[in-house]
Amino acid sequence: MVIQKRQPFFYDTTLRDGNQALKKPWNTQEKVEIFNHLLELGVQAVEVGFAAASDMDYDACTTLSEISEGKVIISALARAVEKDIIKAIESVQTAPKKRIHTFIAMSEFNMKYVLNKTPYEVQKIAVEAVEFTKRNLDKSGEIQFSVEHFGDCRENLNFVIDTLKKVVRAGATTINLPNTVERYRVKTFVDMVAKVYDALPKDITIGVHCHNDLGMATAATVESYFNGAVQLEGCVNGLGERAGNTNLLEVAVALHNSGVDVPLNLGKIYETALTVSEMSKIPIYEKAPLIGPDALAHRSGIHQDGAIKTKDMEKGAYRPIHPSLIGRKDDAEKLEFTSQSGKTAVFEIISHAGYPITLQEAVRITPTIKEAAEKAGELPTRNIIDIYFKEVFNVKGPFKLIAFDKISDDKYNLKFNHNEQYYEVQGIGNGPLDCCLSALKQAGFEYKLAHYQQIALDEDILGAGATAMTVIKFVLPNEKAIIARGKDESTSNANVKAVFNGLNIIAKMQ
Ligand code: KIV
Ligand code: ZN
């Protein structure tokens, strides 16, 4: 088991491996834009293209080399073929820090059926390609060699290791081990990486380059780091052939969470992901880890409760990171309301929308909101607020207010129905609320008021010109307290509406 002491080295292949799988590969200008994001993210090396692939890619390699100003290592890919290597060398000529990355497949299957060559021939090509690069590249340039299909080399790993020792003697300083097609267990691949690490001189950098055919590329890359690989290759958003490459952004966060000192500006992750998504025209999947629109959303009551209790903490009950770590807004951690959700979500959604509510009220109106969600699915905030208005400010029940008219400061006339029976009573007291309660008492409805609050409102908060809100608390014979609200343009009407909402809430409870 290798104890990893070296800092990870992020080698980005978005502009090469990611680009080669796009429906419309990027031109130079587009590559420049992404390159600038990669610089801000702080990757250590960028593979800028496959210079021999097309004039457009060659042009991008030269431009990015020119603008790199030594901020990052610029790497160009070349098959182990002299004309490709020459093109690659020419294309990165002006980069202050440059690398040529050459490769050949070494799995028995590929050597036999694709390359049509014997292992001996392949070994010779590999070594000669590196020697050729060494002879033609500036002294300051580095050489990276990749064993294409390394993940398929279980049967001939000794041959691979033997070849790599020769490749290193020929001048390669980085040995990259691709899982070109992900077919097997992560552990199988990682064990092979560890064997190569053990066999090669310790001043050689081991890289891994994992494709994501089985969806385990991030795991393979992360575990490879703990087994000797320092150079971690991948693409932003996991772009690449078929199911793509390792998503480098996920690797960065997984290592960070595991206590590794990650040499990236993690706060740039989200912005970089959005740019690459836009420019690749590949939308970010709703459930994409970390960056998906839904990746930090909570819908079940239990999760919502845990999420709220740990909202401002670095570690959250139901999230892998605080959204700010990768540059997402705090509200990326959001609560959505479905039939699986509960009172915490009701309380949070309504409070967050700027409306007054207590947890007790949230508990009371949750069943109605859940019922709506059972029929409609996830409820938009607007629908939740509509229900809130009905259930808090316009509670339906046996009591119906008809009129509340002032006779004098200490005398009001109250007209109402209870279960279709009409009442008209005058109440005497100290102000409208007292008068209303006194009238009700005379009609046979006596309630104990424990709390009263009058709140002046900004006109538009509760709509319909309401400028006054009354909040009252009734205490029931069983000592239970209920909160009720009323809103109106006039204080006295807000009072009486709060009382009637309260009466109907109590009636529903009985
Ligand atoms: O997937 C792969 O094997 C590659 C090599 C060229 C490194 O992309
Ligand atoms: Zn690849």
Brief write-up:
The protein is built from 17 helices and 16 strands. By secondary structure, the protein is α/β, with parallel strands linked by helices.
Give the spatial strand order of the biggest sheet: 1-2-3-4-5-6-7-8
Annotation field: number of helices = 17
Oligomer: single chain
What compounds are bound to the protein? Answer: 3-methyl-2-oxobutanoic acid, zinc ion
Structure description:
The chain is an alpha/beta fold. The protein has 3 domains: 9-280, Aldolase class I (TIM Barrel, Alpha-Beta Barrel); 297-392, no CATH class; 399-509, Alpha-isopropylmalate synthase LeuA, regulatory domain (Double Stranded RNA Binding Domain), CATH 3.30.160.270. The protein contains 17 helices and 16 strands. It has helices at residues 14-20, 28-41, 55-68, 82-91, 108-115, 119-136, 157-170, 186-199, 217-225, 248-257, 269-280, 301-309, 343-352, 359-376, 381-393, 432-442, 491-509, and strands at residues 9-12, 45-50, 73-79, 98-105, 142-148, 174-179, 205-210, 231-234, 297-298, 334-335, 399-408, 411-418, 421-428, 448-456, 468-475, 481-488. The chain has an 8-stranded parallel β-barrel with strand order 1-2-3-4-5-6-7-8, surrounded by 9 helices. A 3-stranded antiparallel sheet has the order 11-12-13. Strand 7 (205-210), helix 9 (217-225) and strand 8 form a beta-alpha-beta unit. The relative contact order is 0.07. Bound molecules: 3-methyl-2-oxobutanoic acid (KIV) and zinc ion (ZN). The site of 3-methyl-2-oxobutanoic acid (KIV) has 8 residues, from strand 5.
